[in-house]
Amino acid sequence: MPSQTKPSIVFAHGLWADGSCFNKLIPTLQAEGHEVFASQHGLNSLESDVACVNFTLNHVPGPIVLVGHSYGGTLITKAGTHDRVAALVYIAALAPDDEETSQQHLEQFPATPIFDHIDVADGRIWLKPSAVEHFAGDLPEAEQQLVLATGAVPVVDLFNQHVPGTAWKTKPSWFVVANNDHTVNPDRQRASAKRMGANTHDIDSSHVPMLSHPDFVLDVIRAAAKATQDE
Hints:
Elements: E1 8-12, H1 26-31, E2 36-39, H2 46-59, E3 64-69, H3 72-79, E4 85-91, H4 102-106, E5 118-121, E6 124-127, H5 132-136, H6 141-150, E7 173-178, H7 186-196, E8 199-203, H8 209-212, H9 214-230
Parallel strand pairs: 1-2, 1-3, 3-4, 4-7, 7-8
Antiparallel strand pairs: 5-6
Protein name: Alpha/beta hydrolase
Pfam families: Abhydrolase_6
Keywords: Hydrolase
């Protein structure tokens, strides 16, 4: 059983992903004594996704390190105001201010190549097969295809929706910047990390460093977890 002396870890996935995108991190963190859960939200609305993260936070003991990848950064920014969240970890993520939508946050920097490789059908935004090199280009081909096959598909207006909350203004934050990201502009990531005063760690990675460089990301999460124990 996980030791209660260690913080819990909760993950929030982004677009075109699900909780399995953290499968190279979760077993190690569990073995190290953390209680770990990944929110399985449906990308149906920002409000329902934030609620799903909150349900997960309610399920685990505190203190909690809340980790978000990509759009999951928006979710941890909102849900991270939960009183048992002690630290935030952003992985190639969005981190909007309270008055910003995710779309407004992204549009402050040049668009990335992935948005030339999407389809809209049935009110959802789908990745074309050609998008995978811009999403997970440093993964082996078989892993790229698994990413395409398992990703949840967002509603069209998800990034234009707004929910209040800006946890990084009051919670200590860590940020993994993916230098070779073709999905979230790396300059957007750096500016976000600077604005929040995050402990920032750069890696030459695609948009999915938790899959292509899991040991690097694990070390950042460990640093955040240790900080909660040192308080």
